[in-house]
Every structure is written in structure tokens, then in C-alpha cells.
Task: structure prediction
Amino acid sequence: MQCGIGRFGLKWDAFLGVGAAAAALALAPVVALALIALRAGEGQWRHLAANVLPDSAYETLVLSAGVLAFVVVVGTACAWIVTAFDFPGRRVVETLLLLPLAFPAYVLAYAWLDLTHPVGPLQSGLRALLGYARPSDFRLPDLRTLPGAMLIFGLALYPYVYVAARAVFLSQMTNLAEAARMLGKSGATIFFRIALPLARPAIAAGGALALMETLNDIGAAEFLSVNTLTAAVYSTWVNRSDLPGAAQIALAMLIFVLLLVVMERMGRGGRSYAVIGRNMRPLAPRRVEGFAGLALAALVTLPALFGFIAPAAHLVYQAFLRLAHAGMPGEILAETGNSLLVAVLTTLVCVAGALMVTGGVRLMRSPLRRALLQISAVGYALPGTVLAIGLLVVLGGLDALVRGGAALLGAKPPGLLFSASLTAIVLALSLRFFRLATSKIETGLERLSPSLDNAARTLGRSPFAVLREIHLPLLKPTIAGAALLVFVDCMKELPATLLLRPMNFETLSTHLYGETARGTYENGALAACVIVAFGLLPVALLTRLGRRESEAREERS
Amino acid sequence: MTRFRLFAAVLLMGASCAASARAEEVNVYTTREPGLFAPLAAAFTARTGVKVNSVFVKDGLAERVAAEGAASPADLLMTVDIGNLIDLVDKGVTKPMPAELLEKTVPANLRAADNAWTALSLRARLVWAEKGLPLAGLTYEDLADPKWKGKICVRSGQHPYNTALLAAMIAHAGQARAEEWARGLKANLARKPGGGDRDVARDILGGLCQLGLGNSYYVGLMRSGKGGPEQKAWGDGVQVVLPTFAGGGVHVNATGVALAKGAPNEAAARKLVEYLLSPEGQKLYAEQNFEYPVSKAAAVDPTIGALGELKPDTISLVDIARNRKAASLIFDKVGFDR
Result:
């Protein structure tokens, strides 16, 4: 697979080629944004610094910190409880805990606001129960506050940490934990001294994903009355027609996020988290009987109850009301097809690309490849619309090039080939979610001992053959997990799809947004149900995979 | 590698499908939600046989048309806010429409002097309130009166509907007075601004506040029962007042349309505009969407008519659009969304 030596002493190979292409594609919209930002803006920085940033930076930081704390604590604790203990209903809860992943954050926000509003079912029921006549006599706190937003985002996003931590707890720490048990160490000691330190990179990766999703959100934050920096980007751009100014804030945010990512990486230092392959099998969970077991089951069911069961039930009920009132919307089948098409294509691109790029980093350790990997995942740190604006410029430029070329050759200039096409959407979503795939596969690779690679290389296998014959089979569940994460996020994605899609091309989420934008979101309840339903299957598979991954290893050892 | 090739072929196919064009059709880029535009487009196609292709975009319409450049398939650009519409004209992605198309139906204050844009329908920014609250003769200025302290609900100040209202206030009273008003309104808020207009009705019913701002067509949507019994209850549960500016009229905003600069199907585009401004098209705006028609030839829907006669403010839409940026800055300055 080595394709000769470049002029600069650089060894080009397929890995580097894919890595360079991925990085270039990821950088293109960022460069376009930077060029926009360099255009003379309207000099709004002083206005922003005085009137906007102090408050929105504060709210953004508090929200981020709150969400991060929530997802790390809830995600890690749940992952630990379902792997270290055996209690009634454990297998079911294990899957339930993943399900909020299927919910777009803004749908979760709508559903909970409906449920908890003073005229909604929860408070109406409470008033009836307690004998209060009017909402003004008895009212629960409003959800539309910073703490409320932390809760909603936390519930929507903790599964990122849960998935990552659980994978580690299931397979990586068994020997150490068993040794500790034999030495009479308590469960708490095992958790804090062994499990947590080993799971740290995974938890950090999951937390980083949750954090970026929070920072890039626009729908849920608006609905929950949180005034984030992303909202400042929008008002600068949309209300003041100052795209350069908006691009400047967006890039400043991007730099901030990237700094966080780099700091996390540096915090890890050079430690290795690899575990020798044959010892990876699940820790035998400790049986918890009777009342304690039931209590434990109830406790870990809570996040699933609030993050999925209650809002999903509400959504299904709303969809049912709609169906009874207005009948089946005719477009829903075509929209489902479009959503699936976009999600499947993007998943293929992301997983294949991520395998090549992360595999290249592992097999041919070089700072250049590592840098390319980091750059290629930059899209996740940008709000979808901002990324899409950058891409508009890039794709429009490509189309102009094609037209220029055609004119030179005297041919009839073609219409738009890149802009407003399926390609544009798949590209945008791939850039946006590449990090989901690389992050998962990278963590998976870290768990494989480098001695496997070394042995295979010594036996004369090419790097590509190592990837194909060693990594691919060992990583199958990890790859499937990465694919499922990307797939589910594609089904939910809204802003980039909305801006880049061709005419007459609706997906489930653009349909849902078309309704929410005019304040009739219950009309979109059915579309939301379908989005969630298509998210459920992959999510259920994800749990099975996690199990099978560790069980397969057990058989092998 | 064959799989890769297949994959590339699929992508290219997707691209070329999107690019192919057919005869007698018109391409519309719109910030108008599909649920509100689709019935109009369907009626137009039924009447003329011209196919309507459309894409609903929220933010970034101008950027998209600009990036697509000379090959952009867009014929008509539609928006639901006058500021956004004039923005398109200012960004140079439109061209004037023939005068005879607009002049006979659209009053001069609802279209550009050079016919670069025209309003298609109007919506009024109204006050919704708890039933029984005495609000006769209410002005927008009154909303800043300290007697409403802690009693008002409203969506974000940075939403175009509110920005346009403040922009009109600037046109009426000047920047300083408008800022004072925004500060007063902020001080009266019962909760942080957020959500949508309909939440205001719900919050009033929930006893969170006593009055708030909302657009006229939501009242029609809710009260007509089109959105189901629950919303009918919300709509019927609040009283709706048509406030005025002191010495002026009710604040109205427009949905409108402009012809794209490179419109490839200009003839069909004209047909669509003509249809939307025809008595039949205008009637659809009134009946389907509960908006105020711009043409005198069409009547408002009875649900909306029952709110009282609309005496629109005399400030021109252009002035509102011009003050939009200043209004947005003021909302930031008074920490409205904080």
C-alpha cells in the first residue's frame, strides 16, 4: 500500500491520502469562514464586549459546566452500576439508559415543557389532586431557566458518556478489579482507584461530545430561554446583517473549544490505556438482592424515565392526537426515505474515513498524521448552520470553477453540481459527525495492545493488511458502535441539512422544524416519533454489541 | 475499491439529479414554513399547470443564493419578515419586477418604489391578555408602564417580530425614547424572554403572566380549531387586543417576495406573483394562514375580522427595515434576553 516517496521525504500511502483529504475537506469551510471574518465587519466587537458577551459567556459557561457535570456523573454512575452489580431488570435498564440518544435535544425540550407547563398534564393533575383551582394558586418552578436547561441537555446527552464508560467497565478492568477484590478492597476503592482512572479517556471523550453538542445547539436553548453565545452569533448575523461579525464570534468559540480538547489530550499525558487482548472479559457483577436490588434498579431507571420514557410517551400521545385530528401526512414516507438515505450514506463515509485516518495514526505514528486526525474532526466543534455557511461558499466556489472550466472548453455551462445537492448534505454531515466515528474508533484502538500490530508487522504484513486482518475483526463491535452513533445523529441533524438541501427534498427533521418554526410543533409529532423510532433500533443494537463484544472476547480467551 | 467507486457514482448521481431542470416550473426559496406555503403553491399549480419547486430555509437564504451565483436555480425569494426581505435586495441578489405586475393591486407603501420587492400579506403584532383585564385604548408604549411589573411575557427580543416592533418604535419616537421603552418593557417581564408567540398564550393561561405580545395569525390558527381542541382552548382562553402606537396605528410586518437576480424561469415566476396577488391568492392568505391580505379585493378571515378593524401604522415598511439593526443593538444593550 506504500506508494513511493514524495518530494519532501514524505511517505505517501492510502492512510495519509485519506487523512489529508479528510483534513482538507474539514478545513475548507473553516477557511471560508475565516475569510468571511476577515472582511471588514461592522466593528461590533465593542458592542458585543459591552452588552452581549459578559452575559452570554456567563450563561454558556454555567450551562456547559452544569451539563458536563450532569453527563459525567450520571453517565459514569449508571455505566458502573449496570456493569458492576446484578439486580432485577438489569439487562432492560442497560438498554433503556441509552435511549435518550434517539431524541434531538430540542424535541426533548418541547416535550418536557409541554409536560411540566402550568397548564400541562403534570401540574394540572397535581392541582386536581391537591385541590387547587387555578394555576396561580399552586405552581412548580419553571423549566425555562438555566438549571432547567442543564437538566434537559444533561438528559439528552448523558448517553455519550454512558456508552463510552460502559465499554471500558465491561471489558478492560476485569483482571485488576478481580485482584483488588481478592485483596479485600471495597467496591468504592475499585471504582475510584481502578475503574475511574482507566475509563478517564473514554469519559472525557464522551463528555467532550456532549459539551460540543450543547455549545452548538440553537433550538433547545431558545426554547428554554437560555441566552448562549451561539444565539449571539445568530443575532449578529441575522438581525444585523453582519456575517463577518458573526463569523468572528463563531471562530472565537471554535478556538475556545479546540483549546479545551487540546488541554484534555495533554492532561492524559503519554499514558497508555492498552490492555492485553486475551484478558478482556466482563467483570462478574456482584449480585444485589431484595430491597437494595430494587432500589438500585429504580435509581438507574430514573435517567431513562426522564430522558426517554416520559417524553416519548408524550410524543406518541401527541402524534396519536394529530393522526386522529388531521390524518396521516402523505409525505412522511418520502421524508423517512430521504432521512435514511442521508444517514446511511453519511455513516458509510464517516466510518470508512475514520478507520483509515485513525488506523493510519496508530500504524504509522507520526505527528503529521495525528494532526490530520485532529483537524479532520474539527467540524463537530462548529454549530451546524455556521459550518453550512462555510460550506455554501466552498461548494459555490467549486461550481463556479466547473462553470469556468466549461466556458473555457466552449461547452454549455452545467447547472449546480455541488451546491444544493445530496452530496452537499452528506459532505456537511460527514464533516459534522466525523468526530463521533474517530473518537469511538480511536478509543477502541487504544484498547488493543500495540504488540498485536508489532507481531503482525514482524510477520511481514503491510500496515493496510494489519488494519484489515487484525484491527477490523477485533474492532467489529466498536465500528458498529461508531456507525450507530453517526447514524442516529444524522437522523436528528437539522441546521446543515436545512440550509444545504436541494429543492423539494424534505427529511423528517426538516419537516419537524417546518412545524416548530411556526409554533405548531405538535403537527410534527409524528415526524419526531419516526426520528426517535429509527434511533431506537440502532441504540438497542448498541447495547447488544457492547455485551457481545465482551462476551466474544471471553470465549476467545 | 469497487465499493468506493460505486459509492462515488451514487454521490455524483445525487448531484446531477438535483441539477437537472424541467420545463414550465418555478423555483422558490422561502423562509415561509412549508405548511403555510404548500397550499398556495398547490392552488397555483392546479390553476396554471406550472410546477412549483421549493426549499424552505430559515437563516442563510441570502448567503445561499449569493454562493450559488450565476447558476442558482432560484426564481423567487420569499421571506416572512420585511427586514429580511429588504436585506435580500440590499445584498444584490434580486432584481426589480415589472411595475404592471404590482401596481394595480399593491398599495405603494407595501412595495419598493422600484418594485424590487412586494409584500404579499400582513400580520399585526397584537397584545394577548388575561380575560377581563381592562385594556381598551392600549398603546405599545403602555407596555413599559411600571404598573405591569412582572406581568408580561414575550419571546426573545432578537426575534425578527420583536426587532421589527422596536424598529417601528424608533421610527416613531427616536432611538433614545425607544431604548427607554425597551428598558421599561424588560423591567416588566414575568420571565426571561424565550419560546414562541404561542407560548405567551399558554403562559397567560398558566398564570405566569397577565399579558404579552403575539402575532395575529396565531390567534386565527388557535381559535379556528385547525390545530385541535387543546389549542382552541388556548386561543379562546385569552383576550386579544389591537394596540396602537401613541398617535399611530397597529404595528404590522409583512411577508413578501422578490425576484431573484438570475431567475431562470422569469415568466413562470411572474405568473406565481400575479397569482399570489390575485383575489384568489389573497383569499388563500386570509383563509389558510389567517393573515391580512395586501389587496383590497380580498377580505380577512372572520376569526381575524372579529378581533376588530385593523388600522395599520403609517410608518413605512422600509423605515422599519432600516431601523432593524439599531433595534437589535438596543435589545442587546438593555439586556432584554438576559
In short: The radius of gyration of chain A is 25 Å. Residues 453 and 470 of chain A are 8 Å apart (CA to CA). Chain A touches chain B through 80 residues (CB under 8 Å).
